[in-house]
Amino acid sequence: xxxxxxxxxxxxxxxxxxxxxxxxxxxxxxxxxxxxxxxxxxxxxxxxxxxxxxxxxxxxxxxxxxxxxxxxxxxxxxxxxxxxxxxxxxxxxxxxxxxxxxxxxxxxxxxxxxxxxxxxxxxxxxxxxxxxxxxxxxxxxxxxxxxxxxxxxxxxxxxxxxxxxxxxxxxxxxxxxxxxxxxxxxxxxxxxxxxxxxxxxxxxxxxxxxxxxxxxxxxxxxxxxxxxxxx
Length: 231
Description:
Layout: E1 9-13, H1 17-29, E2 33-37, H2 40-49, E3 54-57, E4 60-61, E5 64-65, H3 66-76, E6 81-86, H4 91-99, E7 104-107, H5 112-129, E8 134-136, E9 139-142, E10 147-150, E11 153-154, H6 159-169, E12 176-177, H7 178-185, H8 195-210, E13 218-221, E14 225-228
Parallel strand pairs: 1-2, 1-3, 3-6, 6-7
Antiparallel strand pairs: 4-5, 8-9, 9-10, 10-11, 12-14, 13-14
Helix pairs in contact: 2-3, 6-8
């Protein structure tokens, strides 16, 4: 999908007929192959009957909790991109969804053009990860399974922490600008604070150190960005 996901298989999980119908029409017009589930049971059935590249998931569903459904979808397919689209704006709900395996969290109402841009960015990253393992020193990343180890110790990474580690390890020895990392991991339409990047780097350093790696394997380049050190 070099064109950013055109032709990708998208499952829309949304019980609101107006919003769901609008999303289906918009995605179909953008050359996506779209299926629509109106509740948890239908979503599970569609996920088991055929693969999806991306799931647009509402949290407020009539027959169950969307966060639990997210966990079930992630258990069925560890490679599918899950983007939560919900009216819930509480930060705690976002954390729960991301911990359950969601790749992104979009609050309603949203601008369609920005949602489509985010989907294209996620699908491009998904395709980039569909390659063999990445190894840098004692650090190994299974890009298909989205798992990482230092030696024999597995790193307990959240989705964005994993993507950030991939972005840094795949350019090991090279300085990477903050702006480039934000675009690669969050996308060019991210409107939050860039402190998000610093928090994720701090978490990665701590988890690397807990697994027996040097905490400063990720070097800070003041006024520029970060570099994953080769030795």
